[in-house]
Amino acid sequence: MSDKRILAKIKKLMAMVERGNPHESANAMKKVQALMAEHQLSSEDVALSGIDANKVKAANNSERQPKWSLLLVNLVRQAFGVEAIMCHEQLAWGRNTAEVMFIGPAERVEIAGYVYTVLARQLKAARGEYISSLSKRMKTSTKTARADLFCEGWCNGVYHKITALVPSEQESQLVVQYIEKHHPNLSAGESRAAKATKRDQSASLHGWMAAKQVELNAGVGGQEQAKLGAA
Length: 231
Known about the structure:
About 55% of the residues lie in helices and about 15% in strands. It is an alpha+beta fold.
């Protein structure tokens, strides 16, 4: 039996401990203690069993993430009351890949990963359309700078649509413990802002306006629903 199945069984037994009559509660507790002893599980292991991680492909593969990419992660993180870390890997042929890992209550990280993936796809399409609208004579570096600003504006526009889901203090503590246990060697990364001039600033407004086509609803009390599409 896998650790996840054992922990799930323990959680069911703990529910019986809380809800059952004295005799049922005592029997359930004995079974819990026996399972924990047999599989060398601590009370922390049981507490952390409700916390999970969901890893999805990042919107940008750079080791030094652009500002807009982190804005996208942050808005999803706040919408669903979870934490997020960036994971980088350099493949054998030198190519860099990046993933976003959402950490929190299992049902919420699953939805957060899905919503992030859909938003990343929509942002990629919106970025492409914006670049196509720019003059073909414009330098590539200028196009990239304006596209990055466009993406920042887009993410800020979507951010102002969300209602942040604030996790409970207990949830937050468990997430911290989960990260310390499973990812003890995390280091702070660096982001890069768009290399733009004052003439490029209108690109951010274009992004903000484009974000009006996105709708994102985060429910309350663990009942999250995401509705993405034209407003």
